[in-house]
Design goal:
Elements lengths: L1 E6 L8 E6 L2 E5 L24 E3 L5 H4 L2 H6 L5 E5 H29 L8 E3 L3 H9 L1 E4 L5 E4 L2 E7 L7 E9 L2 E7 L22 E5 L14 H15 L3 E4 L5 H14 L11 E4 L1 H12 L1 H4 L2 H8 L10 E4 L2 H7 L7 E4 L9 H8 L6 E4 L8 H6 L4 E4 L2 E4 L3 E4 L9 H9 L7 E5 L3 H15 L3 E2 L6 E3 L4 E4 L13 E3 H18 L5 H18 L2
Parallel strand pairs: 3-4, 4-5, 5-7, 11-12, 12-21, 13-16, 13-17, 14-15, 14-16, 17-20, 21-22
Antiparallel strand pairs: 1-2, 1-23, 2-3, 6-25, 8-9, 9-10, 10-11, 18-19, 23-24
Helix pairs in contact: 3-4, 3-7, 5-6
Length: 532
């Protein structure tokens, strides 16, 4: 039984862990890196066709976004996740593919003006996303599921996002039993709409996140409705727009929950019917999925509204923009308005167009309502940069930059300690992941000092033996030059196809000699054609 750390090691995004047990190769998450890449991540220890299962904690792209690439490289195993996560991934992975294809198209259109034009291809295509989606196995919460002989799993609601889960994994190999729990992203308490995190009683080993492991949210629950209403009122009085970069799944629905309350209580004076635009096809679809899963996932407060026949996330004046023409029309209407648009970190999507039209207007407000990773455009704006470049144009920042402080889908330090403290038996070791470099180390030391736990923050490539409880290899950090790569070239695609072929060959070991000989002849024939 081996555990290996691939992604989100001393970093916040790109979550990925690997288990080898009972002759099976298992990934827990396979996420996309967002923002600045601080450390090199090692490659998967086996080729994609050899991966048997993927266990997904939740649908956010920093946990799920590379599943289509895994499929493109030959993965044909099953992807287990909760029922709500399955619904969300069915739209989010397609949206990711759409963005990849758009960025490649934009790159190629721009590069044609350069004499050294080099064509680019998307990291993966819509066909790859559709292929990955077909491998999904939806699972209910709290049901123990047998993956194969010797491996069982169970999903528990972790309160971070609709469908989010911690995952319990039971391993039984050669008479040795071990249980490992992957926290996923642990939710903040008292969030609108979804339930608080549930707790797990026992584990031999725990892999837990640490996003906010060095800070505390407000000791008193903020009055988000009042704070948001004050920002809207001040901005509208100036004649400006409130532009909210918001994650299409989760945060957008929470903001709609607050805005419905603001309108119901008539908190905005002089603008009783102010328009609210949700400018994100993904957010519109996700809102429908929230409705579909309300009975399983909504908290008591939201369910009270549902029982009264009130939709918690819709109201008069709500406009859903689907087409690009509808999106463009928003900025030609000078009526003060609230614009919710993705992506939440301003790295892609329609929000960049709204920033281009509103950042330079001093009467407007850009309101951030979620975590901004290091290296993202959103983080740069929050940190006080005076200019940004959007679509080849330099934009001076004159708008009022605000944050709705305290609103977070992640537990703070106290919430993290409460979650790990709920284990009735003391885990043999707790691995700290999914946090910025210094935070992972700080939180690991907190667990050692305050909880008397054996805690460790691994770097990518670290391997641990779950039977002996010892490290096979402790990786050291390998820093990279900050660079965001949105598209891969055609040769990279060819190399990926080659890796898939190697994986397929290994998977056919033991097949009849006659079939293997035919396969070898086909490969050699292809090589003869291209060997120049």
């Amino acid at each position: 039984m081996k555990l290996m750390f691939i992604g989100a090691a001393h970093e916040v995004t790109g979550s990925c862990h690997y288990i080898n047990a009972c002759g099976k190769h298992i990934l827990i998450d396979y996420g996309m890196e967002q923002g600045q890449n601080i450390f090199e991540n090692v490659d998967l220890p086996v080729e994609a066709p050899l991966i048997d299962y993927v266990l997904l904690t939740h649908a956010h792209v920093d946990h799920s976004g590379m599943l289509p690439l895994l499929y493109a490289r030959g993965f044909r195993g099953r992807i287990f996740m909760t029922e709500a996560s399955a619904d969300l991934c069915s739209i989010m992975l397609r949206d990711c593919a759409h963005i990849q294809m758009q960025e490649a198209e934009w790159h190629n259109r721009k590069a044609k003006r350069n004499s050294e034009f080099k064509a680019a291809e998307p990291v993966y295509t819509m066909e790859d996303a559709d292929g990955a989606i077909k491998q999904i196995v939806p699972c209910p919460y709290e049901k123990q599921i047998e993956l194969c002989d010797g491996i069982q799993i169970r999903f528990a609601d972790i309160g971070h996002l609709l469908g989010s889960a911690s995952i319990e994994v039971w391993l039984n190999e050669g008479g040795q039993e071990r249980k490992i729990v992957f926290s996923g992203d642990i939710g903040n308490k008292n969030q609108p709409l979804i339930k608080d995190p549930s707790y797990t009683k026992d584990a031999d080993y725990v892999v837990m996140e640490s996003t906010y492991g060095d800070r505390l949210h407000s000791t008193e629950r903020p009055d988000y409705v009042k704070e948001l209403a004050d920002i809207i009122q001040t901005t509208f009085n100036r004649g400006g727009n409130v532009v909210i970069p918001s994650f299409a799944v989760g945060r957008t629905q929470e903001m709609l929950y607050f805005l419905r309350k603001i309108k119901e209580d008539k908190l905005i004076q002089g603008f009783p019917d102010f328009p609210v635009y949700v400018d994100s096809p993904l957010a519109v679809e996700a809102t429908g999925i929230f409705h579909k899963n309300e009975l399983q996932c909504f908290d008591e407060e939201a369910m009270e509204l549902v029982k009264k026949g009130i939709n918690p996330i819709t109201f008069p004046g709500l406009n859903l923009s689907i087409t690009s023409d509808e999106s463009k029309a928003i900025n030609f209407d000078m009526t003060p308005k609230v614009i919710l648009s993705a992506s939440g970190m301003c790295e892609a999507g329609r929000i960049r167009h709204h920033l281009k039209h509103n950042l330079w207007r001093q009467e407007c407000t850009i309101l951030f309502v979620g975590y901004q990773a290091v290296g993202t455009l959103g983080r740069a704006i929050i940190d006080g940069t005076e200019q940004v470049k959007l679509f080849g144009e330099t934009i001076d920042i004159r708008a009022d930059i605000k944050q709705l402080t305290g609103i977070s889908g992640h537990a703070d330090k106290e919430g993290l300690l409460e979650w790990i403290g709920a284990f009735e038996n003391r885990p043999k070791k707790v691995f700290i992941v999914h946090g910025e470099d210094s935070v992972t180390e700080t939180f690991a030391q907190t667990l050692i000092d305050e909880c008397d736990l054996d805690a460790y923050a691994p770097y990518s490539g670290t391997r641990f033996d779950l039977i002996s409880g010892t490290f096979d290899y402790e990786a050291v950090p390998v820093r990279v030059t900050p660079k965001k790569k949105a598209v891969s070239d055609v040769f990279s695609r060819l190399m990926a196809a080659g890796q898939r072929l190697i994986g397929v060959i290994k998977k056919n070991e033991g097949v009849a000699n006659k079939d293997l000989a035919k396969f070898a002849d086909q490969i050699n024939s292809l090589c003869d054609k291209w060997d120049r």
